[in-house]
Amino acid sequence: MKITPLAIAITALTGSLNAWAAKPAAEPISPIQPAVITNPKLVELGKKLYFDPRLSKSGAISCNSCHNLSMGGTDNLKTSIGHNWQKGPINSPTVLNSRFALAQFWDGRAKDLKEQAGGPIANPGEMAFTHELAVDVLKSIPQYVAEFKSAFGTDAVDIGRITTAIAAFEETLVTPDSRFDKWLKGDKKALNEKELAGYALFKNSGCVACHNGPAVGGTSFQKMGVVEPYKATSPAEGRSAVTGKDADRFNFKVPTLRNVELTYPYFHDGEAATLEKAVDVMGRLQLGKQFTTDENASIVAFLKTLTGKQPNFKLPTLPPSSNATPQPKPFE
């Protein structure tokens, strides 16, 4: 048989196609990578500020109150409790893996974690303080002044440095090594058949159009209620409150699904108490699909494999107040 240049070309092309077909397709979700700490003194300062309730008017509410690191970085309430037992207008999203989000808050009004950190301190319905009073409190505590100098090079204390430190700590709150991450990295025994079937449904049904990337979400704003309208119990308008555009009404940041087993209840109004309810509602309202009981159970089984290694660190011992530290006012 005579081998012609055309035959050689066809053989080479066929080999390339076979190699391409044998290569596994890239997954829409990527593994979470462990945090890399470049300024440990700044992170340690931020950790103390994150847990310090003296940044609130009452002296009782800290960042950890609504984003409890023992509870998946949230508070497991439909809406959070603010100063003087005020009912919050919206569900508290998890702080875990929030570094991967395109913006912060459900409506994306803060461009990053630093900008977000200053919001609750001055919000009258949350910590009910002012940035000026928060600075005065920290300036009055000698150990804090020394730690600001150690972290920043000078002992100046201002709201910019406060939020920079809190954000630096929050940047470390990632949750690698979930069973799904292990599967992505090649451990094919990390997931069972039901969980794999759930992941296949998750992809084939279109969930990955919004829930993708390392955080399995957080990278886009989407309308809540695409196929059917969603009847919310929260007054939140979504992205339109930031942009002023009616087209953005009811557009919210897609939440991360990392650790979703821990971060109930679900949606911006906290109306879905269980993962099963959340999967059912999302299927009908966003995809126009009614999942069967078995399909729902498979997707839920997959979602539970996204729970990663939770932040594990020594709780900070907060520096004592001085005689000059402003006193909290919990009942005003």
UniProtKB/TrEMBL annotation:
Residues 1-21 form the signal peptide. Residues 41-149, 193-307 form the Cytochrome c domain. Its main location: periplasm. Heme c 1 binds at residues 63, 66-67, 83. Keywords: Electron transport, Heme, Iron, Metal-binding, Oxidoreductase, Periplasm, Peroxidase, Signal, Transport. GO terms for molecular function: cytochrome-c peroxidase activity; electron transfer activity; heme binding; metal ion binding. Its cofactor is heme. Binds 2 heme groups. Heme c 2 binds at residues 207, 210-211, 282. It is found in: Periplasm. Gene3D superfamilies: Cytochrome c-like domain (1.10.760.10). Binds 2 heme groups per subunit. One of its GO terms (cellular component) is periplasmic space. It holds the Pfam family CCP_MauG. Residues 312-332 are annotated as: Disordered. PANTHER family: CYTOCHROME C PEROXIDASE-RELATED (PTHR30600:SF7). This is Cytochrome c biogenesis protein CcsA. It comes from Zoogloea ramigera.
